[in-house]
Amino acid sequence: MQIVSISSLKGGVGKSSVVLGLASAALEAQVPTLVVDLDPHGDASTALGVRAAPGQDVGSVLRRPRKGAMASVATVSPWTRHPITPEVRGTRHHAGWQPWGSPTARGPVLDVAPGSAASSHLDHATYRAKDLKRLETALHGLDRYELVLIDCPPTLSALTRMAWAASHMVLSVAEPSLFSVAGTRRTMTALAQFENSRIWAVPDAGVIVNRFRDGSDEQQHRVRELQDLFGQLVVDPVLPDAPAVQQAQGAAWPVHRWPGTAAEDVSRRFSTVLQGMMH
Ligand SMILES: Nc1ncnc2c1ncn2[C@@H]1O[C@H](COP(=O)(O)OP(=O)(O)OP(=O)(O)O)[C@@H](O)[C@H]1O
Ligand SMILES: [Mg+2]
């Protein structure tokens, strides 16, 4: 099982969108996946078509964590029942697009541990070291999933640190803009300090560039700046700014099933990123 946090101390850069794109890629590739929505706003849960029933959310599990308890709130995403329309199948086929997973006898597995305001009791700066084990404990032994994607809030709170402590990999999302580059620096510095405590090594880290607009010199400059700062950690390919991303989210559809060439391009990029993460 690969546990990946999608994080950034800057808000609105696309953390939830990256979680959703990777979940869509995992569904397409038939990688059994659990999305853990740590953000008290629950945006990823909403776009995955899942709403927390009272007491059946991530915050309630983390309040009194037991080994593997996240399974008790995992809810099947309606994305798994989403048909591939002939139009979408046709365009994907034309472009030589292929799902790369092997079909499983279990059928598609995409579950969501829904977020809600209940987790805000942990969204603060102070915590005890043992609090950081809560999420790791709640995910313990959930072997039916090959991938766990954790959507983090945009704060360096106990929630974010709990996510990092449970993760094999932390992806920091950055937009190619001045303030976002500065935000990524802060995130990566915080991550390095966290790892330096030596108790909480995160084996892998990456910076994923989102909302890239090809024609913009300023944006190309910012991507080069990120590459100078973080070298090999910058994930290839970058993710384009594409209205299809917002449209698919608004309709609670996986972007891999959204029609049109822009959705196809962004889907292929998410699949490539996922493939890189799983090896
Ligand atoms: N690649 C993209 N192309 C077009 N729109 C995008 C893209 N990525 C994100 N967006 C849009 O930008 C907005 C912010 O994205 P998102 O909610 O994913 O950010 P976030 O980092 O999770 O925000 P928060 O910090 O509030 O949790 C959303 O409306 C989303 O649809
Ligand atoms: Mg978000």
Task: Kindly list the characteristics that best describe this protein.
single chain, alpha/beta, Rossmann fold, 7 strands, binds adenosine-5'-triphosphate, binds magnesium ion, Chromosome partitioning ATPase
Structure annotation, total helices: 10
Overall geometric form: globular
Structural class: alpha/beta
Assign the CATH superfamily: P-loop containing nucleotide triphosphate hydrolases
Give the tally of β-strands.
7
Helix content bin: 25-40%
Distance between the termini: 12 Å
What would the CATH topology be?
Rossmann fold
Which strand order spans the largest sheet, edge to edge or round the barrel? 3-4-2-5-1-6-7
Strand content: 5-15%
The tally of domains stands at 1
Mean pLDDT: 91
Task: Please tell me how large the radius of gyration is.
Answer: 18 Å
| Low-pLDDT residue intervals, each spanning 5 or more residues | 93-97
User: Which CATH class applies here?
Assistant: Alpha Beta
Write out the distinct hetero groups bound to the structure: adenosine-5'-triphosphate, magnesium ion
What CATH architecture do you see? Answer: 3-Layer(aba) Sandwich
N to C succession of SSEs: EHEHHEHEHEHEHEHHH
